[in-house]
Automatic annotation (TrEMBL):
The keyword Transmembrane applies. The chain crosses the membrane at residues 7-23, 29-46, 58-80, 105-129, 179-198, 242-260, 272-294, 315-333, 339-362, 391-408, 429-454. This is Gluconate:H+ symporter, GntP family. InterPro entries: Glcn_transporter (IPR003474). It holds the Pfam family GntP_permease. The keyword Membrane applies. Keywords: Membrane, Transmembrane, Transmembrane helix. It comes from Faecalicatena contorta. The lineage of its organism: Bacteria, Bacillati, Bacillota, Clostridia, Lachnospirales. GO terms for cellular component: plasma membrane. One of its GO terms (molecular function) is gluconate transmembrane transporter activity.
Amino acid sequence: MNADIQMLIGLLIGMALLIFMITKTRVHVFLALITSAVVIGLIGGMNPKDIVEAIPQGFGGTLGSIGIIIGFGVMLGKLLEDSKATTTMANSLLKLLGKDKEVEAMGVVGFITSLSIFCTSGFIILAPLVKGLSKKTKKSVVALGVALAGGLVLSHSLVPPAAGPIGVAGILNAPIGRMMLLGTLISIPSLIVVIIYARYLGNKIYQIPGENDTWIRPENKLETVYNNEAVKEEGLPSPGKAFAPIVVPILLIILNNVLTNLGVVNGSLGTVFSFLGAPIIALAIGLFIALFALTKNMTKEKTLGSVEEGLKASGKLMLLVGGGGVLGKIIQVSGLGDYIASSIAKTMIPAILLPFIIALLLRVIQGSGSVAMLTAASVVSPMLGKLGLDPVFAGLAACIGGIFFSYFNDSYFWVINETLGIKNTKEQMRVWTVTSTLCCITSLISLLILNAIWG
């Protein structure tokens, strides 16, 4: 049997096994992810030694880039909650926005934030704000969280200076300014669709935060009763102190990216902001701000206990994210992704859809949207002249394909669902798999329309 076909069969069997274990057995998701990855490798004909080596590489490689961020982010979120900073933030936003605009606000905040921050980091940083708003307004945390996650992933995937799109632009030699403009235009209809779906799903999965990291699902949806005046509560930190642990890291990361894109990376100033704007350092600074600005009314024991609770909560999330990394690594080492990409490139598919389909399949196979879009751009880069493709539209097509169908092998899938307290597999897929697919389909339609007009 052809080795590539054997690997494809292994992938199909492994993914079917993963879905079965998660939905029909008592096997924990983390164990199911590792087991599925091993089965894919064995049936696909990989050397057992290569499989064993790929497991820690995939786990460590994924957590190496995001594990510390998850730990710091969850600790920060617990401190913001226990110090009542989230209540202050919720009060401030309600006063500013007025009634019934929280879902739209979260979508826009997410879109702006992820222009310079990876969507996973942005979601972790802003999750306490989502929980605070949900607790305050009695709006479903699912509606607010889906809107935030959708806004984050759209700018992260489609609009430079986000890392993925700017990498694609570099590979295809596409003009950055034009790609920013068209990427933003494409994102607007998709963000509208996300907000509509978020509101719909929030009514179907009505869940709000309870006390001590619990979740409440009332049988009847609670009435949203508030006005534009913040509720007076004792012991609340000021808005400046409440927002600072979130705003300061975001501003540092954005400033670092802006200076980098302007070429201001040399000299003492560039070095300082490059250091301070690294996500790990920026988030650590936010954590220190929270510790010193928000815990004056908390005892040392309560503060340390809050941090410990955050660390405990981050452990499960890290395992799930690392497990998804193992699954993606096995598939990467097997060479299956390259085989599928090169096979599609030889077909008679319309030119504009070629980078989209390559990225789409790679996304589903190995989980990382950035890897999918960058690989697709690399595959079609030598063909742009023959295909008659505008590099900007080819790049955006690859970026859009990288959004499609986020599920078990994507760390963002687990971050969103675990943070929002969604445990049921079917609900997890409704929360993010469906949302990411809607983003992809709507963005593709917008791209095809723009290509017909300007391409």
